[in-house]
Amino acid sequence: MRIILLFVGFAMLFVHHYIQPISVEGQFLAFATGILFLGIPHGAADLLVANQNANSEKKRFSMLFFFTNYLGRLVGFGAILWFFPLIGNILFIFLAAYHFGETDLHRFRTDTLWGKILVMNYGLVILSIILMPNFNEVRPILLLFKAGFDNLAFINWLDSHRIGLIFSAVVLFLLSVTIYFSKNKELAFSENRYFSIQFLLILVILYNLPMVLGFTFYFVIWHSTLSLKNITSYLRKNSNFNTANRVIRQIVFYSLLAIGGILIFGFTGFMFINNNAIMAYSFLGLAVLTAPHMQVMHDMYHKIRLNQNA
Questions:
Q1: What average pLDDT does the structure give for the chain?
Q2: pTM of the full predicted structure?
Q3: Chain mean position to CA 49
Q4: C-alpha to C-alpha distance for 101 and 124, rounded to whole angstroms
């Protein structure tokens, strides 16, 4: 699966650089289409995953508690973004980085302190390679909001320290990799080598794509596809979802509900007035959903690791 996704990434790279540069409109169309068919479905399965998490612990699942807890986290993080936008966005970057890292490294033993540090630094390198070289694309999106102008000095600081931030992320990642593998020498060399090659290929793809295409490749094609694969495999352990078709039907149902809500929000909030608005509101939506979604997925990956080490 990962080899196929890497091939798709290099195909995007080849088309954009050597056949026909993908227009800005084409990039946003690819992003929006991917969000609808992959991004939303991988998040829409949170209810099913939380149910399975409870079943695996032989606990009774309460839908009322799930929605209260889920919406509470969503509203809480939304409040942080509203009242403290700078702190909220920085927190979002770190939460997203950890979530991306945990998904890509879920087969590694990352429940230790150095495992968690490795996961975080992995995600920070990914995000720095997507955002920092393309900060000229990121800047207009940030300035769509009043908070962007209020924190213009910080945005300018990011702009002038792009190379340093990428370098710092890479150094911290290499340091954490060295320490992690020195403490886990029993890991097979072939697994270590495969992980390194895969990571380097992802970085090559992301560094050479524009921001929108890079985010489309990593979040939509890579992250969401692998997440759906892991979710489907995890849910099939439940007797109620013991076939792929049953899992897919449930995910499609909840995805349609989510898409309906997004369309209502988008039209009433003028989300679709231009490309930057689409991107800005998409990031805002992802930011608000990160906190509750990340917790559900973290619990799932923790249980997957426990089963692997059992």
A1: 84
A2: 0.88
A3: 17
A4: 8
